[in-house]
Each structure stands twice: as C-alpha cells, then as structure tokens.
From TrEMBL:
Domain NADP-dependent oxidoreductase span(s) in chain numbering: 8-114
Stated family: Belongs to the aldo/keto reductase family.
Keyword Cell inner membrane: no
Pfam families reported for this sequence: Aldo_ket_red
Top-level lineage group: Eukaryota
Annotated PROSITE patterns: ALDOKETO_REDUCTASE_3 (PS00063)
Protein name: NADP-dependent oxidoreductase domain-containing protein
An example molecular function term from Gene Ontology annotations: oxidoreductase activity, acting on the CH-OH group of donors, NAD or NADP as acceptor
Record's keyword terms, sorted: NADP, Oxidoreductase
InterPro entries, per the entry: AKR (IPR020471), Aldo/ket_reductase_CS (IPR018170), NAD(P)_OxRdtase_dom_sf (IPR036812), NADP_OxRdtase_dom (IPR023210)
Amino acid sequence: MATLVEAHPYSRNQALLHWCCERGMHLTAYSPLGSPDSAALTKRAEDAPSPLREPAVAEVAAALGKSPAQILIRWAVQRGTSVLPKSVKPERIRSNLDVFDWEIPADMYDKLSKLPYQQRMVDGSFWINPAGPYKTLQDLWDE
C-alpha cells in the first residue's frame, strides 16, 4: 500500500512518513521539485520560495556536481520515498533518472532535511469553487 503526497525539503511531511513506515506503507512524493511550473496555476508569485532556488540546494548541487533537481530527487529517494518528477523533455527525464549511483553525504542531507521554511507549494486553491464540494481551503485540508 502507498500514499501519495506533496513532499520535498519545504514540505517534508515527516510525521506522515513515520506513520506510513510504522504501518508498512510506502510514501510517494509528488511535486518533489516544489512544482516550479505551477506558479501561474496556483497564483503564486514567480519569485515565491522554491526548493529549486533554495541556496542550500544550490550549495549541495555545486559541491556534488549535480543539478538542483537531481539533489531534490536524490534527497527524496535517500529518505526512502519514491518520486514523481514531471517532465516531458527527454534530457530532463534522463537527468532525473541519474540519481541512483551516488548519495548526498550525511552532513549535506541533514542540512536539507532541516530547512526551516515549511510550506506546501501546491495549496489546492485551484480546486476551490463556490459551487463545488471545496468552497474554501479549510474544506479541502483537514489540518
């Protein structure tokens, strides 16, 4: 059994990951890159915080000779989750798959795992509709 949730260093869902592990469930991360192409869809500002533009991610990427996307994907895989990075470009798909023969060193991994900014990038506002079942974000999320 698996559950699918937004997960990246800005929205770690650590309690849910732990809960799933205790029950033998697997967690799959959607938007592991922070959903960079959804700013217009979610009405987020183009300069809103993004894991792909996070300085700590850039620092780790430079140190390891990898792209920020590869660092975010590898971080997710290394913590035991599978990922669903969206891409239609063959070169990005190849790059996204090049994350299995290396690891992020523990000190760098820990730094990414403790980023203070915690906010989901896909807030669900595109599902809100006065005529639908989700009239407010509170209707959608049970937080």
